[in-house]
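Hey team,

Filing this mostly as a record. A colleague (T.K.) asked me to run one chain through the structure pipeline before their review meeting, and I want the input and output archived in the tracker in case anyone asks later how it was produced. No errors, nothing strange. Just documentation.

Input sequence:
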Amino acid sequence: MGISVTAATLVLVSAFLHAGWNLLGKSRTPSPAFFCIATLSVGLILFPFGFWVVSQAQALPRAFWLLLLSSGFFQMVYMGGLALAYQRANMGLVYPIARALPVLLVALAMALLGQALPWLAWLGMLLVTIGCLLVPLVYFRQWHWRAYWRADCAWALVAALGTVGYSLADKGALLHLEAALGGAVPPMAMAYCYLGMQFLACGLWLLLGCLGSTGRAQLVQSLGDLKLALVTGLMMGATYGLVLLAMAMTENVSYVVALRQLSIPLGVGLGIWLLKEPAYRPQLLGVGLVCAGLIAVSLR
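Output structure:
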């Protein structure tokens, strides 16, 4: 079964927002502490609403809380890896790798869990992955594993693995939350309730990682840029809230993860346009393959 028009529209809007907050973050060379402030701000803003929604639910099982903690941890891995990668490389290199690799990894994980995908969806995901691996190259003859054997690519890979982890954990947690609520609140309320809880968990994990002297110094610096951190956090919240809602409407989460990759050509284009990053032929071909793969994966 594919993805509904409503769910696809939500994911497309989130893709625009996702590219936007990455552009904001890259423009200031973010640190894990920056994302800690951003996520905690959104989590605290949504906390009263989340508390009210949870009060409408039956007792949540232990599995829900374990999945929530796992999701926050993997979200921390994603944001920490993204921040460290952006400190070392352009958005046009980091963003595609961090966004592309989860596509096939999530699909493989879902297949191992017994959810089959049609061949067209597999083809589309393969095109997305190949395209995004082309994007970081300056010349076609550079297509060799050594082109990716660098610290910036390694941190982007860490971010990609974090995306896989929180995507799978979130799907399981949402199923538990939906069952406990029993239709007591609309899907949008449930999605943003969970978003606030997840961002709080992620922010606390990031805060734990900032207890060292370097992390504390970065926290103080990020607090001085609180307005930008708050705007970034709100964009992040709106982005993933829409994705969570789409996940709740879709049986197979790999479709949602794949369609989110529209943010890749958007992010690369914004980096070229606003950050004056260079554009190379492999990069442009890669963006084209990503778009073709997105069309294939969204067909029923």
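Quick notes for T.K.: The chain has a mean pLDDT of 85. The chain is about 80% helix and 0% strand.
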